[in-house]
Amino acid sequence: MTRHSSHIEKHYTERSGWLRAAVLGANDGIISVTSLVIGIAASGASTHTVLVSCIAGLISGAVSMAAGEYISVKSQQDIEHADLKMEAHELRHNPEQELKELTKIYTQRGLEASLAAEVAKQLTAHNALQAHARDEIGIVEQTLAQPLQAACSSALSFALGALCPLLAIWVVPETWLQVGIGLVGVLSLAILGAIASYAGGSSMLKGASRVVIWGILAMLFSFWIGSLFDVGMH
Questions:
Q1: What is the pTM of this model?
Q2: pLDDT (tens digit, 9 = 90+) per residue, 161-187?
Q3: What DSSP string describes 119-147?
Q4: How many angstroms separate the CA atoms of 191 and 196, rounded?
């Protein structure tokens, strides 16, 4: 009795596009908004002022992240399209030269010359542009730039990250506001770093440590700057 089973590997690079945008957005949401409200709280501002500042930071930050991520990834997409257009032009006008280029690539990767030539011919017959995009340019379908996906992921994740200090302001008593916001921020960063590292297949401890260290430095610096001002709005 023969058993047939399908074995499909899910590689972590397939998640690179949305994962990078989501982690970057959430990290910025936690660090920037937490640092913002800690600095404002350290200046002596009222809880209401801190709350309004947090909401403003959440909205403006999410929009800014979406716009920045869209422009950045769109530029990457434009470059990919330009490269593919150039390659398609070369395939139409210099097919033999392109076949030689593909053969040379496979030879350099370790195939014998005859086998490399045969592989190049078969892949060219199947889908020449796809073969050159993947093996000559380094563009694969799984990692193609997706501007809208990246923008939405960044905006949503930033907003979710910024909700952490917002919830802290609502929950923590006013006398413990600065400490409470800071602790919630550090804990949120640790969880984010661990989850992102797990999703990316790397060490959860290292991932959490990286974001926590940078987050604490940003919060301390913002606290110091805020403490230089005394708005007298208790």
A1: 0.71
A2: 999 999 999 998 888 888 999 999 999
A3: HHHHHHHHHHHHHHIIIII---GGG---H
A4: 9
